[in-house]
Amino acid sequence: MTEQGIKQRGMAPQGTDTAEAAKPVTAKPVTTKYVLAGFGGQGVLFVGKVLAQAGMMAKKQVTWIPAYGPEMRGGTANCSVIISDRKIGSPTVGKPSVCLTMNQAAYEKFLHTIVPGGVLYVNSSIVADLPGRDDIRIVKAPVNDLAHDLGSAKVANIVMLGIMQALTPSVSDKELEDALMQLAGKKPELAELNRQALKAGMEFANRL
Amino acid sequence: MAILMKGNEAIAEAAIQAGCRLFCGYPITPSTEIPEYMAKKMKKAGGTYLQAESEVAAIYMVYGAGAAGARVMSGTSSPGFSLMQEGLSYLFAAEIPCVIADVMRGGPGLGGLGPTQADYFQLTKGGGHGDYHPIVLAPATVQEMIDLTKEAFDLADIYRNPVILAVDGILGQMMEPVEFPGTYKAKILPAKTWAADGCEGRPKNNVISYYLSSEAGEADNLRWGKKMAQMQAAEQRFAELSLDDAEYAFVAFGTSSRITETAIDMLRSEGVKVGLFRPISLWPFPVEGLQKRVPQIKGWMSIELSAGQMVQDVRLAVNGRAPVGFYGRQGGMIPEPEEIVAAFKTQILQGGVQR
């Protein structure tokens, strides 16, 4: 496992509407724009739903849009999520401030769309060590392996969500966990697995 | 409490809450969540979800149920909406209330699955044969989809007229926080004494659109003309953003109005006094509201997911008193706010478009 560029924990990218991502935290309203991408079945749409649900529970403005067109039928899936302190105008995300790529096709497609100063999360279990960018932070995490260690490869997405929460949170840890439990906590055994996956991701990020 | 919901699902849930108990349709991307939700929920509400063999069949099922007085709807996307045009013309002439959602996608032809607003002409100018207009409502948020869907059923009943919800693929697919029951307040409407719902003890009602003499045909058309004039007088709806001090104005509806809002933020941060005029009723087009702004606006610009259709109505309303520009993307592509800003500067600020 490798990581590049993460110097400070808990520093959310300040992607405002004008994409001035590198500015320090101020009282200015914060808008975080996500693109979450991977194979169908890797749960990237679900990660987006948890983020949107958590943002809503935190009384922020949120939008969630899936790529629903022919893209879906090519075996890749992605969604765009915006979490903002202010009313959301354009709900589409051309230039994300936070991007998740769970497979190589997604990495190649979205690497160059991220705003300078943004963060890219990469599933390094299956994405090869490819050329990156110097003006964004790239966080590589072997989430398939981490999920496998928990006993279920299915929760790799939730492990990654935990990593994202530790490094670029848009809501509090509790809000995120509550949102996850609302969407995936109905069966007790799944609730526990998801909770563990989220925790494992956050612990992994803390060791970076 | 707010919940996250897709636009398509919001339309379906709002319809059920508005008393719609029959949905007839045929699934088509990007509107499929409407029939999907109806298939799941309609039975529990004591209603019926009926998958037709085609959109042509679906619209005539709507005709039959509406003629019998039921609150009925269908939902489709552009190619399916084209198939419904003959039926909509018949529904108008028979004065049958109904609500149809058109979740627009790429065209012409089979087109693509991406979002567009390119059915504007077909929606607003009467897409079938004869002199008619449906009422056309264009929401811009998922919450507004709920409020307008509920209202659509009342408008359909009040005017005995088809009402179309004009939605693009993004709004249909997007999830936003929504609250039920929303802003809509139920109205008490007169009983449907015209409906063909069993005539024991009274003369029978015919809910048909055929007349045997041209004189009768003209009389009907004149009566419908009066009804449409009433709708034009009473049902123009719009919203405004940042127009009070504006020197320039965008006109946009649905998703393109959302993108335009971001473009306005960008232009305002550069000191350009620009605002948004957002038609909510596409027919009747909100001419009166727009014309109130004409004296102060030095340049207009219509932003659409089409080759430029609504811009014609904007030009008619502005009537030569200021330049009217246009920017749009087609085929399922969506403009970035930066593109809108650039087009506005070229066409309006630098005088690329004449009045």
Detailed description of the structure:
The complex is a heterodimer of chains A (208) and B (355). Chain A is of the alpha/beta class and 208 residues long. Helices cover 37% and strands 19% of the residues of chain A. Chain A has a single domain, classed as Pyruvate-ferredoxin oxidoreductase, PFOR, domain III (Pyruvate-ferredoxin Oxidoreductase, domain 3). Chain A has helices spanning 44-57, 70-73, 104-110, 143-150, 156-167, 173-184, 188-207, and strands spanning 3-4, 31-39, 61-66, 76-84, 98-101, 119-123, 137-141. In chain A, strands 1-7-6-5-2-4-3 form a 7-stranded mixed β-sheet. The N and C termini of chain A lie close together (10 Å). Chain B is of the alpha/beta class and 355 residues long. Chain B has 2 domains: 3-234, 3-Layer(aba) Sandwich (Rossmann fold), CATH 3.40.50; 238-349, Rossmann fold (3-Layer(aba) Sandwich), CATH 3.40.50.920. Chain B is built from 13 helices and 14 strands. In chain B, the strands form 3 sheets. A 7-stranded mixed β-sheet of chain B has the order 3-2-4-5-7-6-12, with helices on both faces. In chain B, helix 1 (7-17) crosses helix 7 (142-159), helix 3 packs parallel to helix 5 and helix 11 packs across helix 12. Chain B is globular and about 70 Å long. Chains A and B meet through helix 1 and strand 3 of A and helix 8, strand 8 and helix 10 of B. Chain A: Residues 1-23 are annotated as: Disordered. Chain A: Its EC number is 1.-.-.-, 1.2.-.-. Chain A: It holds the Pfam family POR. Chain A: This is Pyruvate ferredoxin/flavodoxin oxidoreductase protein. Chain A: Keywords: Oxidoreductase, Pyruvate.
SSE layout:
The complex is a heterodimer of chains A (208) and B (355).
Chain A (H helix, E strand, L loop, with lengths): L2 E2 L26 E9 L4 H14 L3 E6 L3 H4 L2 E9 L13 E4 L2 H7 L8 E5 L13 E5 L1 H8 L5 H12 L5 H12 L3 H20 L1
Chain B lengths: L2 E4 H11 L4 E4 L7 H9 L6 E4 L3 H13 L4 E5 L1 H6 L1 H9 L4 E7 L15 H5 L10 E3 L4 H18 L2 E7 H5 L1 E4 L35 H21 L3 E4 L6 E4 L2 H16 L4 E6 L1 E3 L3 H7 L5 E6 L5 H9 L5 E5 L8 H13 L6
Keywords (chain B): Oxidoreductase, Pyruvate
GO molecular function, one term (chain B): oxidoreductase activity
EC number (chain B): 1.-.-.-
